[in-house]
Amino acid sequence: MSTDCTNQGTSGSFLLYLRVCCVIDNLGRSVTIKGNGINRYIHCPRALPKSCTSEKDCKDLNSKGSAINGNYIIYPDGETQVEVYCDMNGINCDGEGGWTRVGYLNMTQFGATCPTGLAQKNFTNIDHPLCGRESIGDASYCASTNFSTNGLTYNKVCGQVRGYQFNHIDAFYSFNVHNNTDSPYIDGVSITHGSNPRNHIWSYIGGLYEDGTSITACPCNTGYSGGLNVTATFIGSHYYCESGLNPGQPFSAVLYANDPLWDGQQCDGPESTCCPANSKMPWFYRSLDTQTTGDIELRVCSNRGVTEEEIPIDIMELYIK
């Protein structure tokens, strides 16, 4: 394993040793440090060095010099050990390190399973399972899964979600009826914190057609005439919207696996305005108005039953700071 430590400062050999060997992934391994034309070789012990700092979260670890992405031990309450993954560069978030991961899903990995609350969905035209709602009839509802923040205080949230269109998803079609965070207000994925009511963080929404302009389309589409001013709702500008159905292609009860949602790709025609060049899609970043310790909830929602429409997901990451 090689790690490039160029421009990470001259904090001394011992601090460099701790910066490398306090990363759980490096325990029991030999690590090559490359920087300023010099290679340094560090062999990490099998157990965490006693000099590793006991910090409450990844932000504190980062402030003490930890700069390598990986798994660390943190002490959220000052006593209890919790192993977490830390993003120490924040490239996909705010550009700064110290992000604590609280949720992770990658169904493309062998043996991956859906989190509690989401059902495994198998389709013949994709090579891995997806996660979505249970088949409970022709019902409008959201399937929910929660991610613990271990009581950490945060006011920034960052993450990504990738999903797929099944049949005729229709964005905000029923928003006039379901118009609050506790309802299935979208066809898509809702990310919130807290409860009674849920506090909106981000929405991933699916529109029917890439070139649609009606209420079933993405409101960010050029020429949208659906009558909903999303920015005036609790959602504001904190959403992504995309369709997996090409113009003129009739919808049917199939998974449109060739055009994953919210990845910023294949955004053609009127939908191109939903995928601006400066976007980090599928990644979102949100700075909250106040600090919170609330757990984060992810819900897969739709205003019809799973045989009529569904937006199953396969990739998800959530970070707090």
TrEMBL record:
Annotated ranges, domain Fibrinogen C-terminal: 55-100
One Pfam family here: Fibrinogen_C
Protein name: Fibrinogen C-terminal domain-containing protein
Source species: Amphimedon queenslandica (Sponge)
